């Protein structure tokens, strides 16, 4: 960022960064900022992606603690099948 | 009984290797077709979709896909499509294909679709050029979907989308973003043309199950929603043929 953002707009600045940084590119993350903590929630497909979210948020706000509550979605085989018709 | 495996929103990229492959090993024993409901990549890079294409290569079931909004981000969707086609994935945009499964002709009409919103609160192609372009894009894709779906000669017909045709499968998403998640025009197209199943993705916080206003089953197969590598839906190919057969006998 070229200049510090007002705290009210910080969550959106982080969300935008997480959408546009190709290391993450996730549009469905929730971001909250309280005091000097950034909390990120949502779903991603891999542990690496979850780790990158912390890295990217830290780069943007080095002086903030990043609390990464993102869930890695399981991708196992389904248990059964659903008859639709 | 035809078994359809489906998943969307895989968001492949560097670091995704081997996420899906272990779960695809038994796919041929569990499904007759694999349908991919868009957002196959993170940023629309051909090198990203190559990771997925390598995992799909050699699968013994036919794979059919539509692209999603992420797959357009790098403005290289043609290259993304070619990488998939090189791995024998059939990619549909305003197009249809029919696959023979043990003598049953399964037709799939596919489009990415687009947004606009839902009945009573849909955007209009009115005013600024940007707004006309936005809603006009949805109308164009919906019209084309209806045309190719209606023209599809098959025993079973499936509409494969990325954006949602209905609100019911968006439950859990914030209402403010519904216009960016889908459009009722897609449901109207499907209801006019008729189908046995509609599949979509895009709504990661939505729910799996819904129906179009005419009662056609809709499934949101976004991977964060189904929380498996894919889900399997079975369709009874004889169901629609029964009335005609019964009429012939009596």
Description:
Chain A is an alpha/beta fold and 85 residues long. Chain A has one domain (7-72): Histidine-containing Protein, Chain: A. Helix content of chain A is 29%, strand content 24%. Chain A contains 2 helices and 6 strands. A 6-stranded mixed β-sheet of chain B has the order 5-6-7-8-10-9, with helices on one face. In chain B, strands 4-3-2-1-11 form a 5-stranded mixed β-sheet. In chain B, helix 3 (46-56) runs parallel beside helix 4 (77-86) and helix 5 (129-150) runs parallel beside helix 6. In chain B, a hairpin with a 5-residue loop joins strand 9 and strand 10. In chain B, 53% of the residues are buried. With 250 residues, chain B is α/β, with parallel strands linked by helices. At the A-B interface, strand 6 of A face helix 7 and strand 11 of B. Strand 6 (82-83) of chain A pairs parallel with strand 11 of chain B, so a sheet runs across the interface.
């Amino acid at each position: 960022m070229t200049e510090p953002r007002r705290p009210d707009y910080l969550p959106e600045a982080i969300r935008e960064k997480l959408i546009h940084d190709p290391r993450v590119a996730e549009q469905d993350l929730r971001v909250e900022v309280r005091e000097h903590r950034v909390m990120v929630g949502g779903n991603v497909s891999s542990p690496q992606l979850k780790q990158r979210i912390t890295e990217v948020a830290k780069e943007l706000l080095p002086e903030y603690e990043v609390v990464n509550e993102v869930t890695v979605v399981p991708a196992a085989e389904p248990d059964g099948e659903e008859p639709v018709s | 009984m035809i078994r359809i495996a489906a998943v969307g929103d895989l968001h492949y990229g560097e670091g995704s290797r081997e996420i899906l492959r272990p779960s695809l090993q038994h796919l041929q024993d569990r499904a007759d077709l694999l349908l991919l409901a868009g957002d196959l990549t993170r940023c629309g890079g051909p090198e990203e979709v190559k990771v997925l294409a390598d995992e799909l290569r050699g699968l013994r079931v036919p794979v059919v896909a539509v692209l999603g909004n992420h797959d357009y981000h790098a403005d290289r969707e043609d290259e993304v499509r070619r990488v998939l086609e090189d791995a024998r994935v059939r990619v549909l945009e305003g197009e249809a294909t029919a696959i023979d499964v043990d003598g049953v002709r399964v037709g799939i009409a596919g489009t990415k679709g687009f947004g606009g919103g839902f009945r009573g609160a849909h955007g209009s192609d009115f005013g600024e050029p940007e707004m006309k372009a936005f809603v006009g894009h949805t109308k164009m894709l919906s019209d084309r979907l209806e045309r190719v779906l209606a023209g599809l000669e098959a025993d079973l017909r499936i509409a494969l989308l990325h954006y949602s045709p209905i609100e019911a499968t968006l439950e859990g998403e914030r209402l403010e973003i519904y216009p960016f998640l889908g459009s009722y025009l897609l449901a109207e197209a499907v209801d006019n043309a008729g189908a046995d199943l509609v599949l979509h993705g895009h709504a990661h916080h939505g729910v799996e199950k819904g129906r179009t206003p005419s009662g056609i089953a809709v499934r949101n197969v976004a991977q964060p929603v189904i929380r498996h590598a894919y889900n399997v839906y079975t369709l009874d190919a004889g169901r629609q043929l029964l009335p005609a057969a019964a009429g012939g006998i009596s």
